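Hi, here's the filled form for the chain we discussed.

Project: internal
Contact: R.S.
Residues: 134
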Amino acid sequence: MDIDKIISELSFKAVRSSGAGGQNVNKVSSKVVLTFNLNTSQALSEEEKLLLQTNIAARLTSENILVLNCDEDRSQLKNKDIVIKRFLEIIKKGLYVPKVRKATKVPKAVIKKRIKDKKNISDLKQSRRKPNVD
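And the returned structure, exactly as it came back:
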């Protein structure tokens, strides 16, 4: 995965931000909308694309396009930086493959200790019984 190549494939659109902001909100397009087409990406291999399709399927549209918005700041450049960082986090988490768990045997010392403890408890309970008088 080449980060610079992926960032070059992103497309940005500046939109008027919603919400409070007074007169400034009607004039300035500070909200940034990032779109990334997973199918046409040259920076990702086919295996990486399949991995992303399964891991971030909830965030993708039906055409496998990832759309992210950011209108946290009043500056368009800051919003663009924020949305790029979010995008890279999503991609890194989507490409993460957990290690396969290897089944291990129970050590012999652990088995011996468990049996010894069982015997000690058994002996303790035996000593609490009434003596058998016949």
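Let me know if anything looks off before we file it.
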